[in-house]
Amino acid sequence: MQNSFCIHINAQKCRNCAKCIRRCPTEAMRGTHGPDEIEIIEKLCIGCGECIRECPYKAIEVVQDDWETLRAQKNIALVAGPVFYVQVGHCNRTGFITSALKRMGFADVTESLSLAFDISAYVIAKKIASNENRATPLISSYCPAVIRYIQIQHPELVNNIVEIDSPYETAAEYYLKNDPDASMALIAQCPAVSNMKNSPLGRDKSNFSHVINIRQVVKGLLASGEKIEDLPPAIESGARWLLWAVNGGESHHIARFSENKINTMVVSGMENISVLLNEVELGRLAHMDFIECRACYKGCIGGVSASESRYLSLSRINSLQIDWNISAEERAKLERLYDEGKWCFSKRIEHLPKQAPLSDDISVALSRLKELKIIHASLPGYDCGSCGRPSCHAMADDIVRGRGEITDCIFKLKEKITLLSSEINELCKKNVPLSGQEGDAQIK
Predict the structure, then answer these.
(1) pLDDT at 417
(2) What is the CATH number of domain 2-62?
(3) Is the pTM of this model over 0.85?
(4) Is the pLDDT of residue 3 over 50?
(5) Contact by Cβ (8 Å): 242, 269
(6) Which of 281, 46, 41 lies closest to 154, judged by CA?
(7) Where in the chain is the domain with CATH 3.30.70.20?
(8) For residue 141, what pLDDT band results from cuts at 50, 70 and 90?
(9) I need a surface site. Which of 188, 213, 314, 429 has the fewest CB within 10 A?
(10) What is the per-residue pLDDT for 77?
(11) Where do you find CATH 1.10.15.40 in the chain?
Protein backbone atom coordinates (compact mmCIF):
# COMPACT_ATOMS: atom_id res chain seq x y z
CA MET A 1 0.00 0.00 0.00
CA GLN A 2 1.13 3.53 -0.69
CA ASN A 3 1.51 6.55 1.57
CA SER A 4 0.13 9.86 0.39
CA PHE A 5 1.51 13.08 1.81
CA CYS A 6 -0.57 12.69 4.99
CA ILE A 7 -2.42 9.35 4.99
CA HIS A 8 -1.45 5.68 4.85
CA ILE A 9 -3.47 2.65 3.78
CA ASN A 10 -2.95 -0.46 5.91
CA ALA A 11 -2.72 -3.45 3.54
CA GLN A 12 -3.70 -5.93 6.26
CA LYS A 13 -6.97 -4.13 6.98
CA CYS A 14 -7.97 -3.04 3.47
CA ARG A 15 -10.66 -5.18 1.78
CA ASN A 16 -10.62 -3.30 -1.53
CA CYS A 17 -14.29 -2.34 -1.17
CA ALA A 18 -13.71 0.87 -3.21
CA LYS A 19 -15.80 3.01 -0.84
CA CYS A 20 -12.89 5.40 -0.31
CA ILE A 21 -12.40 5.68 -4.08
CA ARG A 22 -15.99 6.78 -4.63
CA ARG A 23 -15.97 9.19 -1.66
CA CYS A 24 -12.83 11.20 -2.50
CA PRO A 25 -13.85 14.72 -3.65
CA THR A 26 -10.80 15.13 -5.91
CA GLU A 27 -10.60 11.58 -7.34
CA ALA A 28 -7.20 11.09 -5.71
CA MET A 29 -7.58 7.34 -5.10
CA ARG A 30 -7.23 4.50 -7.60
CA GLY A 31 -7.44 0.71 -7.32
CA THR A 32 -5.86 -0.25 -10.62
CA HIS A 33 -2.70 -2.08 -9.53
CA GLY A 34 -4.13 -5.38 -8.36
CA PRO A 35 -6.76 -6.44 -5.82
CA ASP A 36 -4.58 -5.63 -2.81
CA GLU A 37 -3.23 -2.21 -3.70
CA ILE A 38 -4.85 1.22 -3.62
CA GLU A 39 -2.89 4.04 -5.23
CA ILE A 40 -3.13 7.55 -3.83
CA ILE A 41 -2.32 10.35 -6.24
CA GLU A 42 -0.49 12.66 -3.86
CA LYS A 43 -0.93 15.88 -5.82
CA LEU A 44 -4.71 15.37 -5.83
CA CYS A 45 -5.10 14.44 -2.14
CA ILE A 46 -6.34 17.40 -0.05
CA GLY A 47 -6.26 15.65 3.34
CA CYS A 48 -9.96 16.19 4.04
CA GLY A 49 -10.27 12.77 5.68
CA GLU A 50 -13.40 11.73 3.77
CA CYS A 51 -11.78 8.41 2.87
CA ILE A 52 -11.02 7.74 6.56
CA ARG A 53 -14.59 8.57 7.48
CA GLU A 54 -15.96 6.25 4.80
CA CYS A 55 -13.72 3.19 5.33
CA PRO A 56 -15.64 0.52 7.30
CA TYR A 57 -12.45 -1.44 8.07
CA LYS A 58 -10.40 1.43 9.60
CA ALA A 59 -7.71 0.71 7.02
CA ILE A 60 -6.79 4.34 6.31
CA GLU A 61 -4.60 6.03 8.90
CA VAL A 62 -3.12 9.48 9.44
CA VAL A 63 0.67 9.75 9.17
CA GLN A 64 2.07 11.10 12.46
CA ASP A 65 4.84 10.85 15.05
CA ASP A 66 4.70 8.56 18.07
CA TRP A 67 3.46 10.04 21.35
CA GLU A 68 5.92 8.17 23.59
CA THR A 69 8.84 9.15 21.38
CA LEU A 70 7.72 12.77 21.52
CA ARG A 71 7.42 12.66 25.32
CA ALA A 72 11.00 11.43 25.62
CA GLN A 73 12.40 14.52 23.89
CA LYS A 74 13.39 17.74 25.64
CA ASN A 75 12.11 21.29 25.22
CA ILE A 76 9.04 20.39 23.14
CA ALA A 77 6.31 23.00 22.66
CA LEU A 78 2.93 21.63 21.61
CA VAL A 79 0.85 23.91 19.37
CA ALA A 80 -2.76 22.90 18.85
CA GLY A 81 -5.88 24.40 17.36
CA PRO A 82 -8.97 25.27 19.42
CA VAL A 83 -10.41 21.76 18.93
CA PHE A 84 -7.77 20.24 21.18
CA TYR A 85 -8.81 22.38 24.14
CA VAL A 86 -12.46 21.26 24.08
CA GLN A 87 -11.84 17.51 23.88
CA VAL A 88 -12.10 16.67 27.56
CA GLY A 89 -14.20 17.68 30.53
CA HIS A 90 -17.86 17.50 31.48
CA CYS A 91 -20.47 17.91 28.74
CA ASN A 92 -21.06 21.53 29.82
CA ARG A 93 -17.56 22.37 31.00
CA THR A 94 -14.27 22.37 29.11
CA GLY A 95 -11.31 20.61 30.68
CA PHE A 96 -8.13 22.63 31.08
CA ILE A 97 -5.45 20.25 29.78
CA THR A 98 -2.54 22.70 29.59
CA SER A 99 -1.72 22.13 33.26
CA ALA A 100 -1.55 18.37 32.61
CA LEU A 101 0.81 18.89 29.69
CA LYS A 102 3.04 21.17 31.78
CA ARG A 103 3.35 18.45 34.43
CA MET A 104 4.56 16.13 31.66
CA GLY A 105 7.25 18.63 30.66
CA PHE A 106 5.62 20.37 27.69
CA ALA A 107 5.54 24.15 27.34
CA ASP A 108 2.35 26.22 27.60
CA VAL A 109 1.70 28.01 24.30
CA THR A 110 -1.89 29.15 24.88
CA GLU A 111 -0.84 32.80 25.22
CA SER A 112 0.86 32.69 21.83
CA LEU A 113 -2.17 30.91 20.35
CA SER A 114 -4.60 33.49 21.70
CA LEU A 115 -2.48 36.29 20.25
CA ALA A 116 -2.11 34.51 16.89
CA PHE A 117 -5.86 34.04 16.44
CA ASP A 118 -6.50 37.64 17.49
CA ILE A 119 -4.05 39.01 14.93
CA SER A 120 -5.52 36.72 12.25
CA ALA A 121 -9.04 38.06 12.88
CA TYR A 122 -7.72 41.63 13.02
CA VAL A 123 -5.85 41.31 9.71
CA ILE A 124 -8.81 39.71 7.90
CA ALA A 125 -11.09 42.51 9.11
CA LYS A 126 -8.67 45.08 7.68
CA LYS A 127 -8.40 43.19 4.38
CA ILE A 128 -12.18 43.03 4.05
CA ALA A 129 -12.41 46.78 4.71
CA SER A 130 -9.82 47.55 2.01
CA ASN A 131 -11.04 45.00 -0.53
CA GLU A 132 -12.31 47.51 -3.09
CA ASN A 133 -11.97 46.57 -6.75
CA ARG A 134 -10.51 43.17 -5.87
CA ALA A 135 -11.70 39.56 -5.97
CA THR A 136 -14.91 39.12 -3.99
CA PRO A 137 -15.82 37.48 -1.79
CA LEU A 138 -12.65 36.79 0.16
CA ILE A 139 -12.28 33.15 1.23
CA SER A 140 -10.83 32.03 4.56
CA SER A 141 -7.36 30.43 4.45
CA TYR A 142 -7.78 28.67 7.81
CA CYS A 143 -8.75 25.19 6.52
CA PRO A 144 -5.84 23.73 4.50
CA ALA A 145 -8.09 21.06 2.95
CA VAL A 146 -10.33 23.75 1.47
CA ILE A 147 -7.34 25.69 0.15
CA ARG A 148 -5.94 22.62 -1.62
CA TYR A 149 -9.41 21.85 -2.97
CA ILE A 150 -9.60 25.34 -4.48
CA GLN A 151 -6.10 24.97 -5.94
CA ILE A 152 -7.12 21.74 -7.69
CA GLN A 153 -10.82 22.11 -8.50
CA HIS A 154 -11.38 25.88 -8.62
CA PRO A 155 -8.11 27.55 -9.73
CA GLU A 156 -10.05 30.66 -10.79
CA LEU A 157 -10.71 31.37 -7.09
CA VAL A 158 -7.11 31.23 -5.89
CA ASN A 159 -6.93 35.03 -5.82
CA ASN A 160 -9.97 35.13 -3.51
CA ILE A 161 -8.07 33.37 -0.72
CA VAL A 162 -7.07 35.69 2.14
CA GLU A 163 -3.28 35.91 2.12
CA ILE A 164 -2.72 35.33 5.81
CA ASP A 165 -0.57 32.67 7.46
CA SER A 166 -2.08 29.89 9.54
CA PRO A 167 -2.60 30.90 13.20
CA TYR A 168 -0.67 27.72 14.10
CA GLU A 169 2.41 28.96 12.26
CA THR A 170 1.97 32.49 13.63
CA ALA A 171 1.71 31.14 17.20
CA ALA A 172 4.89 29.10 16.65
CA GLU A 173 6.66 32.25 15.37
CA TYR A 174 5.68 34.21 18.50
CA TYR A 175 6.75 31.39 20.81
CA LEU A 176 10.10 30.83 19.06
CA LYS A 177 10.86 34.53 19.45
CA ASN A 178 11.16 33.96 23.22
CA ASP A 179 12.56 30.41 23.04
CA PRO A 180 14.44 29.93 19.75
CA ASP A 181 15.80 26.53 20.82
CA ALA A 182 12.37 24.98 21.32
CA SER A 183 11.22 22.15 19.07
CA MET A 184 7.69 22.80 17.84
CA ALA A 185 5.14 19.98 17.61
CA LEU A 186 1.76 20.39 15.93
CA ILE A 187 -1.31 18.65 17.35
CA ALA A 188 -3.68 18.10 14.43
CA GLN A 189 -7.39 17.36 14.15
CA CYS A 190 -7.25 16.13 10.53
CA PRO A 191 -4.80 14.91 7.85
CA ALA A 192 -4.77 18.32 6.13
CA VAL A 193 -3.49 20.03 9.29
CA SER A 194 -1.03 17.16 9.84
CA ASN A 195 0.41 17.86 6.41
CA MET A 196 1.27 21.45 7.33
CA LYS A 197 4.60 20.20 8.66
CA ASN A 198 5.71 18.81 5.28
CA SER A 199 3.77 21.01 2.87
CA PRO A 200 2.83 24.34 4.48
CA LEU A 201 0.57 26.69 2.57
CA GLY A 202 1.85 30.18 1.79
CA ARG A 203 5.38 29.52 3.03
CA ASP A 204 8.48 27.57 2.01
CA LYS A 205 9.16 25.93 5.37
CA SER A 206 7.06 25.16 8.42
CA ASN A 207 7.99 26.00 12.00
CA PHE A 208 7.00 22.48 13.04
CA SER A 209 9.36 19.54 13.25
CA HIS A 210 6.82 17.07 14.68
CA VAL A 211 3.14 16.33 14.16
CA ILE A 212 0.74 14.17 16.16
CA ASN A 213 -3.04 13.88 16.14
CA ILE A 214 -5.41 14.92 18.90
CA ARG A 215 -6.70 11.43 19.56
CA GLN A 216 -3.25 10.07 20.39
CA VAL A 217 -2.39 12.99 22.72
CA VAL A 218 -5.66 12.81 24.65
CA LYS A 219 -5.36 9.03 24.91
CA GLY A 220 -1.80 9.43 26.22
CA LEU A 221 -2.86 12.01 28.81
CA LEU A 222 -5.71 9.91 30.13
CA ALA A 223 -3.67 6.68 30.07
CA SER A 224 -0.97 8.31 32.19
CA GLY A 225 -3.55 9.17 34.87
CA GLU A 226 -3.19 12.93 34.48
CA LYS A 227 -5.95 14.95 36.14
CA ILE A 228 -7.88 17.20 33.78
CA GLU A 229 -9.13 20.31 35.56
CA ASP A 230 -11.96 22.65 34.56
CA LEU A 231 -11.06 25.65 32.43
CA PRO A 232 -10.47 28.59 34.83
CA PRO A 233 -12.98 31.46 34.40
CA ALA A 234 -10.17 33.97 33.80
CA ILE A 235 -8.91 31.97 30.81
CA GLU A 236 -12.40 31.14 29.60
CA SER A 237 -13.42 34.82 29.33
CA GLY A 238 -10.48 35.58 27.02
CA ALA A 239 -10.75 32.44 24.92
CA ARG A 240 -12.24 34.07 21.83
CA TRP A 241 -10.03 31.88 19.68
CA LEU A 242 -11.68 28.67 20.91
CA LEU A 243 -14.74 29.56 18.81
CA TRP A 244 -12.70 28.94 15.63
CA ALA A 245 -13.32 25.25 16.29
CA VAL A 246 -16.96 25.55 15.21
CA ASN A 247 -18.86 27.01 12.27
CA GLY A 248 -19.05 30.79 12.42
CA GLY A 249 -16.39 31.25 15.10
CA GLU A 250 -13.88 32.83 12.74
CA SER A 251 -16.49 35.17 11.23
CA HIS A 252 -17.70 36.21 14.68
CA HIS A 253 -14.14 36.99 15.76
CA ILE A 254 -13.49 39.03 12.61
CA ALA A 255 -16.67 41.04 13.13
CA ARG A 256 -15.34 42.23 16.50
CA PHE A 257 -12.54 44.07 14.73
CA SER A 258 -14.67 45.58 11.99
CA GLU A 259 -16.24 49.02 12.15
CA ASN A 260 -18.87 48.13 9.54
CA LYS A 261 -21.22 45.19 9.16
CA ILE A 262 -19.61 42.29 7.28
CA ASN A 263 -21.63 40.06 4.97
CA THR A 264 -20.33 36.59 5.70
CA MET A 265 -21.33 33.08 4.71
CA VAL A 266 -20.39 29.96 6.64
CA VAL A 267 -20.37 26.48 5.09
CA SER A 268 -18.97 23.11 6.14
CA GLY A 269 -18.70 19.68 4.54
CA MET A 270 -16.99 19.01 1.21
CA GLU A 271 -20.22 18.46 -0.74
CA ASN A 272 -21.62 21.81 0.47
CA ILE A 273 -18.33 23.56 -0.22
CA SER A 274 -18.30 22.24 -3.79
CA VAL A 275 -21.77 23.68 -4.43
CA LEU A 276 -20.85 27.02 -2.83
CA LEU A 277 -17.61 27.46 -4.78
CA ASN A 278 -19.48 26.80 -8.03
CA GLU A 279 -21.79 29.67 -7.11
CA VAL A 280 -18.81 31.91 -6.36
CA GLU A 281 -17.26 31.08 -9.75
CA LEU A 282 -20.50 32.07 -11.46
CA GLY A 283 -20.39 35.45 -9.70
CA ARG A 284 -23.62 34.89 -7.79
CA LEU A 285 -22.06 35.70 -4.41
CA ALA A 286 -20.15 38.86 -5.33
CA HIS A 287 -22.18 40.78 -2.75
CA MET A 288 -20.63 38.74 0.07
CA ASP A 289 -17.54 40.06 1.86
CA PHE A 290 -16.17 36.87 3.36
CA ILE A 291 -16.74 33.12 3.14
CA GLU A 292 -15.74 30.81 5.97
CA CYS A 293 -15.29 27.24 4.70
CA ARG A 294 -14.53 24.13 6.75
CA ALA A 295 -14.02 20.70 5.18
CA CYS A 296 -15.49 18.94 8.23
CA TYR A 297 -19.17 19.10 9.08
CA LYS A 298 -19.90 21.60 11.90
CA GLY A 299 -16.32 22.83 11.72
CA CYS A 300 -12.97 21.53 12.96
CA ILE A 301 -14.62 19.71 15.88
CA GLY A 302 -15.66 17.19 13.21
CA GLY A 303 -12.07 16.37 12.24
CA VAL A 304 -11.31 12.67 11.78
CA SER A 305 -8.38 12.85 14.22
CA ALA A 306 -10.41 14.41 17.04
CA SER A 307 -10.92 12.37 20.19
CA GLU A 308 -14.47 13.38 21.14
CA SER A 309 -17.81 13.50 19.39
CA ARG A 310 -18.37 16.79 17.55
CA TYR A 311 -21.63 17.25 19.42
CA LEU A 312 -20.01 16.85 22.84
CA SER A 313 -17.33 19.35 21.86
CA LEU A 314 -20.01 21.73 20.59
CA SER A 315 -21.84 21.46 23.91
CA ARG A 316 -18.68 22.47 25.77
CA ILE A 317 -18.00 25.42 23.47
CA ASN A 318 -21.58 26.68 23.74
CA SER A 319 -21.25 26.75 27.53
CA LEU A 320 -18.21 29.07 27.51
CA GLN A 321 -18.67 32.57 28.96
CA ILE A 322 -16.49 34.52 26.54
CA ASP A 323 -15.85 38.23 26.82
CA TRP A 324 -15.91 39.61 23.27
CA ASN A 325 -14.93 43.15 24.24
CA ILE A 326 -11.54 44.15 22.82
CA SER A 327 -9.67 46.53 25.12
CA ALA A 328 -7.75 49.57 23.86
CA GLU A 329 -4.53 47.97 25.08
CA GLU A 330 -5.24 44.80 23.07
CA ARG A 331 -5.99 46.80 19.94
CA ALA A 332 -2.77 48.78 20.28
CA LYS A 333 -0.78 45.57 20.59
CA LEU A 334 -2.47 44.09 17.52
CA GLU A 335 -1.74 47.24 15.54
CA ARG A 336 1.96 46.88 16.36
CA LEU A 337 1.94 43.22 15.31
CA TYR A 338 0.07 44.14 12.14
CA ASP A 339 2.78 46.62 11.20
CA GLU A 340 5.44 43.93 11.74
CA GLY A 341 3.79 41.84 9.00
CA LYS A 342 4.72 38.47 10.54
CA TRP A 343 1.24 37.17 9.76
CA CYS A 344 1.34 37.32 5.94
CA PHE A 345 2.14 34.66 3.34
CA SER A 346 5.75 34.55 2.23
CA LYS A 347 4.76 32.63 -0.89
CA ARG A 348 1.75 33.02 -3.16
CA ILE A 349 -0.88 30.30 -3.40
CA GLU A 350 -0.82 28.85 -6.92
CA HIS A 351 -3.27 26.56 -8.66
CA LEU A 352 -2.40 22.84 -8.87
CA PRO A 353 -3.02 21.10 -12.23
CA LYS A 354 -5.15 17.97 -11.82
CA GLN A 355 -3.36 15.97 -14.48
CA ALA A 356 -0.40 16.24 -16.83
CA PRO A 357 -1.34 17.24 -20.41
CA LEU A 358 -2.51 14.41 -22.68
CA SER A 359 0.47 15.34 -24.85
CA ASP A 360 2.94 18.18 -25.28
CA ASP A 361 2.00 18.18 -28.96
CA ILE A 362 -1.28 20.11 -29.30
CA SER A 363 -2.51 18.06 -32.28
CA VAL A 364 -1.86 14.78 -30.47
CA ALA A 365 -3.52 16.14 -27.32
CA LEU A 366 -6.64 17.10 -29.28
CA SER A 367 -6.74 13.68 -30.92
CA ARG A 368 -6.50 11.97 -27.53
CA LEU A 369 -9.14 14.27 -26.10
CA LYS A 370 -11.49 13.23 -28.90
CA GLU A 371 -10.69 9.58 -28.18
CA LEU A 372 -11.32 10.15 -24.45
CA LYS A 373 -14.78 11.56 -25.17
CA ILE A 374 -15.65 8.59 -27.40
CA ILE A 375 -14.52 6.09 -24.76
CA HIS A 376 -16.36 7.96 -22.02
CA ALA A 377 -19.56 7.96 -24.09
CA SER A 378 -19.29 4.19 -24.52
CA LEU A 379 -19.04 3.54 -20.78
CA PRO A 380 -22.22 2.93 -18.71
CA GLY A 381 -21.83 6.10 -16.59
CA TYR A 382 -22.62 4.40 -13.28
CA ASP A 383 -19.41 5.64 -11.56
CA CYS A 384 -19.57 2.43 -9.50
CA GLY A 385 -15.84 2.25 -8.73
CA SER A 386 -15.61 -1.45 -9.57
CA CYS A 387 -12.87 -0.73 -12.12
CA GLY A 388 -10.78 0.91 -9.39
CA ARG A 389 -11.47 4.42 -10.66
CA PRO A 390 -13.75 6.94 -8.97
CA SER A 391 -15.68 7.70 -12.17
CA CYS A 392 -16.15 6.58 -15.76
CA HIS A 393 -14.44 9.78 -16.91
CA ALA A 394 -11.37 8.93 -14.81
CA MET A 395 -11.29 5.48 -16.39
CA ALA A 396 -11.54 6.92 -19.91
CA ASP A 397 -8.66 9.25 -19.07
CA ASP A 398 -6.55 6.33 -17.80
CA ILE A 399 -7.24 4.31 -20.97
CA VAL A 400 -6.15 7.18 -23.22
CA ARG A 401 -2.97 7.56 -21.15
CA GLY A 402 -2.22 3.84 -21.48
CA ARG A 403 -2.99 3.03 -17.85
CA GLY A 404 -5.93 0.71 -18.46
CA GLU A 405 -8.13 -1.16 -20.90
CA ILE A 406 -11.82 -0.90 -21.75
CA THR A 407 -12.41 -4.35 -20.21
CA ASP A 408 -11.40 -2.98 -16.80
CA CYS A 409 -15.06 -1.97 -16.70
CA ILE A 410 -17.02 -5.04 -15.53
CA PHE A 411 -19.97 -4.05 -17.72
CA LYS A 412 -17.81 -3.84 -20.84
CA LEU A 413 -16.10 -7.08 -19.82
CA LYS A 414 -19.51 -8.74 -19.46
CA GLU A 415 -20.46 -7.48 -22.94
CA LYS A 416 -17.26 -8.94 -24.40
CA ILE A 417 -17.73 -12.28 -22.66
CA THR A 418 -21.35 -12.44 -23.85
CA LEU A 419 -20.26 -11.66 -27.43
CA LEU A 420 -17.47 -14.27 -27.35
CA SER A 421 -19.85 -16.85 -25.88
CA SER A 422 -22.32 -16.15 -28.67
CA GLU A 423 -19.60 -16.47 -31.32
CA ILE A 424 -18.37 -19.78 -29.86
CA ASN A 425 -21.93 -21.10 -29.78
CA GLU A 426 -22.42 -20.17 -33.44
CA LEU A 427 -19.18 -21.88 -34.41
CA CYS A 428 -20.21 -25.01 -32.59
CA LYS A 429 -23.44 -25.13 -34.58
CA LYS A 430 -21.60 -25.08 -37.92
CA ASN A 431 -20.19 -28.15 -39.62
CA VAL A 432 -16.46 -27.52 -39.57
CA PRO A 433 -14.16 -30.12 -41.30
CA LEU A 434 -11.52 -31.63 -39.06
CA SER A 435 -8.07 -30.61 -40.26
CA GLY A 436 -5.79 -33.45 -41.24
CA GLN A 437 -8.68 -35.94 -41.62
CA GLU A 438 -9.40 -37.82 -44.88
CA GLY A 439 -12.82 -38.18 -46.41
CA ASP A 440 -15.89 -36.30 -45.51
CA ALA A 441 -15.65 -36.61 -41.67
CA GLN A 442 -17.58 -33.82 -40.07
CA ILE A 443 -18.29 -32.57 -36.60
CA LYS A 444 -21.75 -33.72 -35.64
Answers:
(1) 92
(2) 3.30.70.20
(3) yes
(4) no
(5) no
(6) 281
(7) 2-62
(8) very high
(9) 429
(10) 93
(11) 362-421
